[in-house]
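Run: sequence + EPZ -> complex structure.
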Amino acid sequence: MPRLKIAGPCRLQGEVSVQGAKNSALPLLAASILCREECILHNCPQLSDVRISTEILRKLGCRVLSERDTICIDAREISSFQIPDDLMREMRSSIIFLGAILGRTGCAVLGFPGGCELGPRPIDLHLEALRKMGASIVEDHGRLLCETPTGLHGAHIALSFPSVGATENVLLAASCAKGTTLLENAAHEPEICDLADFLNSCGANIRGAGGSTIEIEGVEQLGGCEHWVIPDRIAAATFLAAGAATYSTITLRDINPQHLAPIWPVFEEAGCDLTLFRDAAVLVPPKKLHRIKHIRTMPYPGFPTDAQAPLMAMTTQCQGTSMFVENIFESRYKHVGELLRLGAHIRVDGRVAVVEGPSKLSGTTVEAADLRGGAALVVAGLAAFGETIVEEIHHIDRGYEAIERTLGDLGAQIRRLP
Ligand code: EPZ
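>> structure
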């Protein structure tokens, strides 16, 4: 199994370009199913989840061409409405295809989603919303059998939680539904705006994306468009955490600093000096990192749950006690056990994790259990003394494009072992 070998402690320097957002590219690829003309997506990150998504599109009958970070999708001929179980199981976000397949074909057969182990990954909000739009959905032997005998129609939907995926599924299902859909308590994440921009470029009629209430007026059908995926704000946060944890001055390029608005105050509280440009940021660490009193993960524009693990790795190097409260997912502290093996001092009680720092980390062999937890182990390995081996790095490859190359470009001693 491939592993990462890190020789620490590393001093990083220089600049890196940040990849396109995984959590935008995936719904955009799903959205292309609705398009009757060719779509071209630029700045797509080259990740296993993206590759699986293009496989799903091909199984549905789409013609897909990938060339580096550009993906062309021709969904003129959709010949299936079923996603094979093996592909459904490979990634959590495969549920995002439901709204698009239903919106295009009126039927869908999907297995239950797989993906990261972040506690139960329910899809009740997705199903409730789609049922309100006229979908009949039967759960049978771990599969979802969905159909819309008379096609999807507009509805008034109020989500009990601003779920990112459920918001995306409603946008996809409502774009070509009969009538208007009013979605309340929608997710505000930048990826929602990116999806709405894409759909509107293809001829949809969506207003209010980025706010709590989104209105979608169904149109007859969608054309195609050329679209640039927004930068990955979580990858950016991860590399900033790596810079701070190793007391390195680094520059990130091709980012959208606005999307990191919840993150900047955390690095400032740690004592980092940040200079922001239109599409770049320079981080200069302090002599000694200050502790982060209280990080609560919240829906955007709160602190993103996906940045919790990488930032926790950084706080092992901060002076004093830092506290995290994970409000979004049930069990998103799987990385704590592995950080302890590296020598960190962390106590977990339910949703609260308390980090005592600074701790002198010593390299050892650790195992990634999920995507962002795996990235946290890499950040910690960069700061640890000696050699750190990170195993099960397929989790990391789901969300970070060749992480060893990006960090290597910043001077890290990191190699991918076969
Ligand atoms: C998206 O997942 C992201 N994934 C996640 O990133 C991210 O952590 C999450 O949003 C929150 O920002 C993609 O975009 C592909 P949710 P999603 O629906 O849509 C509960 C990463 O590391 N919930 O907003 O699944 C759910 O259990 C990944 O890149 C229900 O109860 O997130 C969770 O506790 C991990 N019922 C909370 O809501 C539902 O029907 C947030 O989930 C749906 C969700």
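>> summary
The pocket of EPZ is lined by residues 22-23, 26, 93, 116, 121-126, 161, 163-166, 305-306, 328-329, 371-372, 399 (CB under 6 Å). Residues 233-245 form the longest helix (13 residues).
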